[in-house]
Amino acid sequence: MKITAVIPVRYWSSRFPGKPLANFRGKSILEYVYQQVVAATLIDDIFVATDDERIEKAAQAFGAPVFKTRSEHRCGSERVAELAQNIGSDIFMNIQGDQPFISASVIDQVASVLINEPTLEMSSAATPFRNVEDFLNPNMVKVLCDQQDTAIYFSRYPVPFKNSGWKKSKNWSDYFGAYGLPDLENAAVKKHIGIYGYRRSVVAKYLEWHPSFLEVQEDLEQLRAIEQGVRIRMVFSSQDSPSIDTPSDLEKLHGAKTSR
To answer: Under DSSP, is residue 200 helix (H, G, I), strand (E, B) or coil?
Structure first.
């Protein structure tokens, strides 16, 4: 069984233009992500998928193979799908290019689920929330799962709704202010890590499926698959993998420790 890892990267970002090439401890964010993927043991080959020449040149400079994609893709999964049309692998991994601390062991975990369960079509990862501030941050995506660890829903909004808290507060400011870590633990809500595993048959459909209503509302590409009835099995890790969405995120991470 052949597994190909893809780091889909675009240069322009409304919140942080040029983010993948931003300097982080002497290297670009993209190079850190690439090195973490290289350290995973189940990956057979790796590609940076981009339509931007600046990304292409930077990736080639640190030795990463590059697959040039079309420019009209709306999400990373569509870039992976285009590459899958040209690569004969069984499983494709999508590792988002803004997570310099993505753990090689998490990458292997997400791949292992698809290797060990042939009927599964997709997999992803999550970690516990460590503070309420992250839970209330729309850049930190929330995931709720069923009892088989299959994702029910992903949202930027603080889910699930805590009805008992609303009955006490009756206003949004007090409602959100009353949240504590025990509430998050009891609700079993987790913080999504930006990684996906796809069986070949599913990733190919990303170019056939139109963006779904929920995907567009939340700006979350994985909801396209969920609305098509695809099961996404989640694996859980104690290791956080903070993403860099804004320049201030980058400043905060300069003092963080790398996960392995």
So the answer is: helix
Q: What is the pLDDT of residues 3-28, one digit of tens each?
A: 999 999 998 776 777 889 999 889 99
Beta strand ranges found along the chain (DSSP E): 3-8, 23-24, 27-28, 45-50, 66-68, 91-95, 122-127, 142-145, 151-155, 190-199, 232-236
Q: Give the global pTM.
A: 0.92
Pairwise CA distance, residues 242 & 260, whole Å: 13
Question: In the chain, what are the domain boundaries?
Answer: 3-253
Q: Which residue has the tokens 């859980």?
A: 236
The per-residue pLDDT for 14 is: 67
Q: Using CA atoms, how far apart are residues 215 and 228, in angstroms rounded to an integer?
A: 11
Q: Which regions of 12-133 does DSSP assign to beta strands (E)?
A: 23-24, 27-28, 45-50, 66-68, 91-95, 122-127
Tokens of 9: 């990267």
3-253: CATH, from 3.40.50.80, 3.40.50.2300, 1.10.357.10, 3.90.550.10:
3.90.550.10
Q: Are 153 and 226 in contact (CB under 8 A)?
A: yes
Question: Which residue, 204, 230, 257, 247, is CA-closest to 98?
Answer: 247
- One-letter amino acid at 55 equals I
